[in-house]
């Protein structure tokens, strides 16, 4: 079966800065892919590129971007909108950017529904209220008439989620959908999204920086660093045996994994900026296993231990680099 | 030694013709060199409590004591210096037009501490102490990353050598690897200088790592408080249990199997006659609706629930 979404070798440049470099991404129906990475690693930009929503300053190149087998890369904006239709929805990181301040939230969700279903007013209204309830908006009957500015960030976020799932999309791209929410509400929203994936076979791309959320929701995980995918593998083995030194260091820095230790293991240095990206491995300046080869040669993404890893010396089960000269 | 104490503090805000009870009867004691974490959901009153504790606004009722002295009358001003605040967004709390050096010197100048050369020397030393390079002294906030700015904010809070630092979500805006650096710094400074932290966070794993004591708030009221291990490993209040069960953990062993999240928190402007958690509690009875449960000792912690003894353990 062909994947819902297929992206090969995606690159996005802003001027001379590679915000995204050589990213591959596939999602099948009924699959949850989590994309994790620190701030600025290119998570949002790569998804906005797929949706064709980047500003003109962003130059997009790829071998292939296809949704349900249809090419999106060479489609005109209009053709792309037609191909995507209501089948692919996105929840944006900034709720304010996708809610219109001039209309009540209930009206906006109803609008999304009406584009899809011809149903009587009352039925649409009932569905809007039900959707708001599903995403954990308290007192949804009253909230339908509220304008975005009358609601908290968390409630707007939930209204946006309701709008995105209103039309039963085949694929949902959710960019930090629960970051502004309390954990009790987050739990409800994540359960809802995973429920849609299970029951309706929706594909879900979940962008997050919360490793706990990844561990509890993902089937497959992509770890991004400075615009590149550093590692990709199924969730359980990723947490048990990270194969990339960056993933391993990131997991070590979690307070949850440092129980009883007074100090948290840290990653020295900072993420390289636009003008100090190294020529070799992007993680090399901060990597404890770095060698001359790491500085000289940018590693390719390759298979090792059942994972895709962008490292010259993928880690073995003991967390030791393989093939590294002593 | 207790360096910060809250005695039944209350903070009301008038909203239209109603009263919003942002903080409604919270007490705690914080000893030198220790960390008390305040957790709870958005709007439960954590930041308000922080502002009361840091003497940035007076309580409607109850009192705050800093280093044992009641923060009342003329003493407030001097006691304020003993409790400095660090905020979630370090960018907003730093003046973009002032160099880092100036930002650090300012509290000393305002309070007439030392001579100008002494202040500069002090600021440079503090920069080094929080792990920033000497060049940082003449740079502006926008030239720094989020983690570096948070180091600056911490350095600034420490310039007056306070007994307490009140940190309101200090690492919530930071990436995991940067968060680890800032948390390590905070612990090192605590070990070295004996500072006490009132540490506000919504991240249970961070709280577990940083705090010896925890205060769980719900709708402005204390739900459960006491020793961090007791509260977080053997929670007795249904809200604490819901909070922990909803928290995503990397380690599957920590995850709760089921949580039924239902109901919604009470409106902050309507008076709550009984327990604040009735609308979401699976154990609710008539008594809960009419009679406000007071904090009482159950096991090793204080719990505000009529049925704390009966509520099963994990
Ligand atoms: N419109 C733009 N013009 C120039 N640079 C941009 C633009 N949008 C994003 N960038 C840059 O591209 C890089 C990737 O940004 P992106 O928003 O994808 O990060 P992210 O991984 O989503 O981070 P976060 O976790 O903070 O959301 C960053 O360095 C960012 O500054
Ligand atoms: N100056 C004020 N005037 C009126 N209401 C206020 C004021 N400050 C806070 N509140 C209200 O008091 C309640 C508690 O707010 P507070 O900011 O203390 O919550 P919080 O626990 O810090 O939430 P968050 O996790 O979102 O930061 C909220 O209902 C808030 O709207
Ligand atoms: S390629 Fe080298 S520097 Fe890069 S992660 Fe692997 S070992 Fe570290
Ligand atoms: Mg983003
Ligand atoms: Mg707050």
Description:
The complex is a heterodimer of chains A (326) and B (314). Chain A is α/β, with parallel strands linked by helices and 326 residues long. In chain A, the strands form two sheets. In chain A, strands 7-8-9-3-10-11-13-12 form an eight-stranded mixed beta sheet, with helices on both faces. In chain A, strands 1, 2, 4, 5 and 6 form a five-stranded antiparallel beta sheet that branches. In chain A, helix 4 packs across helix 5 and helix 4 packs parallel to helix 7. The longest helix of chain A is centred in the middle third of the chain and has 18 residues. Chain A is globular, with a radius of gyration of 21 Å. The relative contact order of chain A is 0.13. The model of chain A has no long low-confidence stretch (mean pLDDT 91). Chain B has 314 residues and is α/β, with parallel strands linked by helices. Chain B has a domain of 80 residues. Chain B is built from ten helices and twelve strands. In chain B, the strands form two sheets. Chain B has an eight-stranded mixed beta sheet with strand order 6-7-8-3-9-10-12-11, with helices on both faces. A four-stranded antiparallel beta sheet of chain B has the order 2-1-4-5. In chain B, helix 3 crosses helix 4, helix 4 packs across helix 5 and helix 5 packs parallel to helix 6. The two termini of chain B are 35 Å apart. The interface between A and B is large, with 40 and 39 residues. The complex binds adenosine-5'-triphosphate (2 copies), iron/sulfur cluster (SF4) and magnesium ion (MG) (2 copies). The site of iron/sulfur cluster has 13 residues of chain A, from loops. The site of one magnesium ion has 4 residues of chain A, from helix 1.
């Amino acid at each position: 079966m062909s994947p819902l979404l297929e992206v090969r070798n995606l690159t996005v440049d802003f001027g001379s800065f590679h915000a995204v470099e050589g990213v591959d991404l596939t999602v099948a129906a009924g699959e949850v892919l989590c994309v994790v990475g620190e701030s600025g690693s290119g998570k949002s930009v790569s998804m906005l590129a797929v949706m064709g929503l980047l500003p003109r300053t962003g130059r997009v190149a790829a071998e292939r971007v296809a949704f349900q087998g249809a090419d999106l890369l060479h489609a005109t904006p209009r053709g792309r909108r037609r191909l995507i239709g209501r089948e692919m929805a996105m929840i944006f990181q900034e709720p304010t950017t996708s809610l219109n301040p001039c209309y009540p939230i209930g009206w906006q969700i109803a609008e999304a529904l009406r584009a899809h279903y011809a149903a009587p007013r009352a039925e649409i209204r009932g569905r809007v209220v039900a959707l708001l309830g599903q995403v954990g908006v308290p007192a949804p009957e009253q909230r339908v008439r509220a304008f975005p500015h009358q609601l908290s960030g968390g409630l707007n976020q939930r209204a946006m989620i309701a709008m995105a799932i209103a039309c039963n999309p085949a694929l949902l791209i959710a960019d930090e959908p629960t970051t502004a929410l309390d954990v009790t509400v987050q739990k409800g929203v994540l359960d809802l999204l995973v429920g849609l994936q299970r029951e309706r076979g929706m594909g879900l791309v979940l962008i997050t920086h919360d490793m706990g959320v990844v561990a509890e929701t993902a089937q497959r995980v992509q770890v991004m660093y400075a615009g590149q995918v550093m590692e990709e593998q199924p969730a359980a083995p990723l947490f048990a045996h990270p194969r990339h030194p960056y993933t391993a260091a990131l997991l070590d820095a979690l307070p949850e994994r440092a129980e009883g230790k007074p100090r948290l293991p840290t990653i020295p240095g900072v993420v390289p900026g636009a003008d100090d990206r190294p020529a070799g491995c992007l993680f090399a300046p901060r990597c404890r296993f770095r060698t001359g080869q790491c500085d000289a040669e940018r590693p390719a993404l390759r298979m090792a231990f059942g994972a895709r890893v962008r490292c010259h010396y993928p880690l073995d089960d003991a967390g030791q680099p393989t093939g590294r000269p002593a | 030694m207790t360096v910060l104490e809250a005695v039944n503090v209350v903070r009301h805000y008038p909203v239209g013709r109603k009263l919003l009870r942002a903080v409604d009867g919270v007490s705690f004691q914080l000893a030198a060199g220790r960390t008390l974490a305040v957790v709870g959901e958005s709007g439960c009153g954590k930041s308000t409590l922080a502002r009361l504790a840091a003497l940035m606004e007076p309580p409607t009722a109850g009192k705050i004591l800093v280093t044992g002295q009641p923060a009342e009358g003329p003493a407030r001003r001097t006691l304020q210096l003993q409790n400095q605040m660090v905020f979630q967004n370090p960018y907003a709390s730093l003046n973009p037009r002032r160099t880092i050096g100036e930002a650090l010197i300012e509290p000393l100048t305002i309070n007439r501490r030392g001579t100008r050369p002494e202040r500069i020397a002090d600021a440079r030393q503090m920069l080094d102490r929080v792990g920033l390079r000497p060049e940082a002294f003449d740079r502006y906030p926008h030239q720094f990353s989020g983690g570096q700015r948070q180091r600056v904010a911490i350095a600034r809070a420490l310039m007056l050598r306070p007994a307490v630092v009140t940190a309101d979500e200090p690492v919530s805006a930071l990436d995991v690897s940067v968060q680890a650096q800032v948390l390590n710094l905070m612990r090192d400074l605590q070990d070295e200088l004996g500072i006490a932290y009132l540490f506000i966070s919504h991240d249970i794993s961070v709280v577990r790592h940083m705090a010896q004591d925890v205060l769980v708030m719900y709708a402005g009221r204390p739900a459960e408080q006491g020793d961090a291990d007791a509260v977080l490993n053997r929670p007795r209040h249904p809200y604490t249990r819901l909070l922990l069960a909803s928290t995503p953990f990397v380690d599957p062993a920590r995850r709760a199997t089921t949580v039924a999240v239902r109901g919604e928190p009470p409106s902050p402007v309507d008076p709550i006659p009984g327990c604040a958690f009735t609308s979401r509690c699976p154990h609710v009875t008539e008594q809960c609706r009419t009679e406000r449960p007071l904090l009482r000792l159950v096991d090793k912690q204080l719990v505000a629930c009529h049925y704390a003894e009966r509520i099963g353990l994990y």
